[in-house]
């Protein structure tokens, strides 16, 4: 009986794939995509997951505090070297249209009494990034929405301008709703689907690999339906994947687009930040025909 039991256990253990098979690229990608169905990962997630305690906030999986006592190392980097932070979870709202029309409506949700505005000369040229507090239209000093940062695209000789507004994911829905209201952008311009349904045979096989990685993984979801394999998720945790991500006003032509997780954002702190950027970014040679 003991011999039969040992043989039976060996057969059950053989069904579990070895670590080398589980660490193959196709299996890893399928597993990572499955784990991102509820909380989106940043591009630096793997690096942070090995060194930080991760928390799930605002639809993202973010590093909260380090597992090791690295506070002295971080302080040393900020004061003497360079410290990099991943702020890609911040949401980017893009505005396109005529400069006069943009400034006219944006003046309704900010005030010169609080400091800089969208009309500041140094920021309007596109050379510097500005920060301010937003309020509901014509409601200053009441009904504050929250702090944001913004940067204008430098002028190219045209009257149309491009503005990027960076907001915290907890404030994105309120600020986006207010911007669409003051610019009267109600009609969707395009639909962004961030979780396409795969239909090819190869992608179906990839989905079957996801369900067979562990014993606890089931081939059916909670509703009892067949699990749908997905590709690499592109999007953010603050946007419905089947809702529009761009709106346009028919009267003024102002367009508002949600560019969250489409533009990566990093913050460099320290006296050697400029040197790090200089060594990292290389100027491309432009050949004119």
UniProtKB/TrEMBL annotation:
Source taxon at top rank: Eukaryota
Pfam families: POP1_N
Pop1 N-terminal domain location: 4-97
Listed GO CC annotations: nucleolar ribonuclease P complex; ribonuclease MRP complex
GO annotation, biological process: tRNA 5'-leader removal
Name of this protein: POP1 protein
């Amino acid at each position: 009986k003991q011999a039969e039991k040992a043989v039976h256990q060996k057969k059950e253990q053989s069904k579990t794939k070895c670590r080398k098979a589980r660490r193959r690229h196709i299996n890893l990608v399928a597993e990572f995509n499955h784990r991102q169905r509820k909380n989106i990962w940043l591009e630096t997630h793997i690096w942070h997951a090995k060194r930080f305690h991760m928390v799930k906030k605002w639809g993202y999986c973010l590093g909260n505090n380090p597992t090791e006592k690295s506070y002295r190392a971080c302080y040393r980097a900020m004061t003497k070297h360079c410290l990099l932070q991943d702020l890609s979870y911040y949401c980017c709202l893009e505005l396109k249209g005529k400069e006069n029309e943009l400034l006219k409506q944006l003046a309704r949700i900010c005030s010169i009494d609080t400091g800089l505005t969208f009309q500041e000369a140094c920021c309007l040229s596109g050379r510097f990034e500005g920060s301010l507090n937003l309020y509901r239209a014509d409601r200053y000093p009441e009904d504050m929405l929250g702090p944001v940062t913004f940067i204008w695209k430098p002028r190219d000789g045209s009257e149309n301008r491009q503005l990027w507004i960076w907001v915290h994911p907890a404030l994105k829905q309120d600020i986006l709703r207010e911007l669409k209201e003051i610019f009267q952008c109600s009609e969707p311009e395009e639909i962004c689907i961030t979780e396409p349904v795969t239909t090819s045979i190869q992608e179906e096989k990839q989905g079957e690999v996801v369900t067979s990685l562990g014993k606890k993984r089931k081939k059916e979801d909670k509703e009892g339906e067949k699990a749908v394999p997905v590709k690499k998720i592109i999007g953010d945790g603050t946007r419905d994947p089947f809702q529009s991500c761009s709106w346009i006003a028919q009267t003024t032509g102002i367009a508002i687009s949600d560019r969250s997780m489409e533009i990566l954002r990093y913050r460099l702190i320290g006296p050697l930040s400029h040197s790090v950027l200089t060594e990292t970014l290389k100027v491309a040679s432009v050949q004119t025909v």
